[in-house]
TrEMBL record:
Protein known as: Pyrimidine 5'-nucleotidase
Organism whose genome encodes this protein: Hamiltosporidium tvaerminnensis
Coiled coil: none
Gene Ontology MF: a single term: nucleotidase activity
A matching Pfam family: Hydrolase
Amino acid sequence: MSRSPLYLPLTKENSTELYLPGDILVFDIDNTLYSSKCGVEKLIKNKIYEFARTLNIKEEEIKEIAGEYTKKYGLALKGFILHHDVDPLRFNELVDESVELGKYLEEDRKLKDFLNNINLHKICFTNASKVHAQRVLRCLGVEECFECIFYCDYGIKDFVCKPEHFSYKVLEKTLKKKPHEIYFYDDLETNVICSKKNGWNGFLIKDDMYYVVSKSLEDKECR
């Protein structure tokens, strides 16, 4: 019988504690569990650019500014909030939640089997909203492969997200894990670098997620 994972917001007030013994695998979702070439990333970027046009940003500067915000804050939305005072819930409605994911993502049996064959606890750590995270995981058919999903609650003022130092500490505290027990996989180099600064085992995902994860676990008896 399949079970739904626990969804937890990345908040400074989070008091939940979970006991998951042994090393743990922590996955980003977008462009990590599915390929960046599938079309979702391009569509979301275009929707971000459309939104930016409503802020009177010069057309020739939109892509550069959105890229800078993503690199600096881990999330373009964070930059738009800090520098343009946008409503994060409105942004999310017009960008992430407006994407028809079913046109780009489908059940991925290979991914599901791969995750289920790894005998370690697995969670997700995303800068996306709960709704977006759920939609992606359900489209891929892998939601039940994870025990917990950490997501960003855009309704909270000054919400926490990667690569902020505190976001990594939220996971450590909630999961009661020492940094060296955490294996982290993400497609953004900034997030991986910050995870390593926190003492995590961080791995950059660009093309072959299966190879990177398998290689990182070569010395472990978990497959």
